[in-house]
Amino acid sequence: MTTRLFSSHAIKSVARPARWATAAACLALVAGCATGPGASPVDPFEPFNRGVTRFNDTVDEAVLEPVASTYQKVVPSLVRQGVTNFFSNIGDVWSLANNVAQLKLQNSAETFMRLNVNTFFGLGGLLDVATEARLPRHEEDFGQTLGYWGVGAGPYIVLPLLGPSTLRDTVAKPLELYGDAQGYIHDVAWRNSLSALRVVDTRSRYLGATRLLDEAALDKYSFTRDAFLQRRRNQVYDGNPPDDDNAGK
Questions:
Q1: R_g (Cα) of the chain, nearest Å
Q2: How far apart are the C-alpha atoms of 96 and 111, rounded to whole Å?
Q3: Across the chain, how many H-helices and E-strands are there?
Q4: Which DSSP string corresponds to 98-128?
Q5: pTM of structure
Q6: 10-64 residue pLDDT tens
C-alpha cells in the first residue's frame, strides 16, 4: 500500500508503462540522489520515497480514488465480486508457477486444482467455486520466490504509480509483468481495458482502509512503510518469520 494509492502489495500489473516507471525509480536510486543523513537502515532513500509518495497521492486523489468510489457506488456488489474473482483466477496462474519454483508441492497441487475448478466450473473464474470446495488460495509472486531462496529484501523503495516495494521486489517486477497471464491477450484494446478495470477494482477494495489510515496515522508514510515491510516479511515466511532474523527477508 501507498499512503493512498495502491494499498495492497501494489497492483500486480499496470500494463506496459509500469516498466518505465520501475526503470526510472531504479535509475534514481542507483544515482544516489535520494539518500539523506540519519536515514533509517531499511529506508535509506526516504527523501526520494516521500517525494514519490506525494506524487502517487496526487494521482490517487485526482484520478483513482474518485473513479474507484464511483465504481463502488454504481456497480452492484455481486458484479464487483465477480470481477475480483476473475482477476484472482488469472493471478493463480503466476502463483502456481511460483509455488512450483519454491518446491511447495501441496500448495502447487491445490493452486492447480483451484485454477482448473474456477476456470471450468466457475465461468472462467467469475465464481470462486474452489473456495467453496475448501481449496485455499496460495498467493505467491517472484519477489517471494527470491526471498524463499535467500535473497534479502534490500532497502524500501516507493515506485511511481506502483507504490511500495523493496529492492528485491523491484528487480523482480519485470518478470512479474512478463509472467502475468493477462499480458498474453493479443487484442490491445481488450488488454488495456482489463488492465484499467483491474486497477479500479483493486483500488475500490481499499477505499475503507484508506479512510481509516487517514484518520489513524500521525505519519502515514512511516505507518505505510512499516506495515508493508512487515506484511512482505510475513508473506516470504508464510506467516512464521523467525524472531532472531533482524534483517529479515
A1: 18
A2: 6
A3: 11, 2
A4: HHHHTT-HHHHHHHHHHHHHHHHHTTTTTS-
A5: 0.82
A6: 333 333 344 444 444 444 444 444 455 566 899 999 999 999 999 999 999 999 9
